[in-house]
Amino acid sequence: MREHRFQGIVFQGNSEGGIQTSIVLPQYKLMFDIGRGYPETIEIPRIFLTHGHLDHSAGIPYHLSQRSLRQLSPAEVYCPAPMADPLDQILKLWHQIEGFETKYRLTGVSAGDHFQLKGNTWITAVPSFHRVPSNGYLVYEKTAKLRPEFAHLSGPEIARLKQEQDLFYTQDKALIAFSGDTTIEFVINNPAVQQARILFLECTYVCDKRPVDRARQWGHTHLHEIAAHADLFRSVERLFLIHFSARYRRGEIEAALQRELPDWLHARTVIW
To answer: What fold does the segment set 112-144+171-272 form as a domain?
Structure first.
């Protein structure tokens, strides 16, 4: 599995369009999608599925089975609400196939639903736009900010007064956004995604042989569209592009990004 770090956060995983996608956040004990069964991720208890296509979900039975065999706590699986019942049926059939009952907790999720992670962080589902029911996800961080009227105070004065007055207010900051498979509307229609510090965005196609209209037909994003809407990424500090079609070599992708993206956005972009 590949690994990247940004501002103290570790990201691990793989993403190849039509083959496998899974991005793991070890510090938050969660993964987005699970396109294959990965032995090294069995300790991760929470899986947030963006949709049911097998390159994003095929590893679920393996993961749940392994956790049960190792007597770990039941995995928590969160998925788009319309796929929850069919997925539950499939997992129960795997019980019969394996002759072993796997323990898990399955939750259907709709846009706007939110769940506590750890400490001051929480996650919410946001609309994404694919050919089947789908969600994107946003991880938020709750931070304390000094009220503007107290900004002139020195450190010692703040320390003394905070015992008597409420000098701070809380603010929810969009920390990490994950798209799954989607058209560019995931960015256009979700202002909170545009404000995320770190954005994982699919970019299945990068060439004219697979034009924008074909990408949209299949519920995907084209590099041309990211370039055309570059100003929407001004607040994004790190853009991880994922889900490139396997037809492209890495050098082709690098050349396309260099050619298409403005310099300021190219400098913030990482090919997964």
So the answer is: Metallo-beta-lactamase; Chain A (3.60.15)
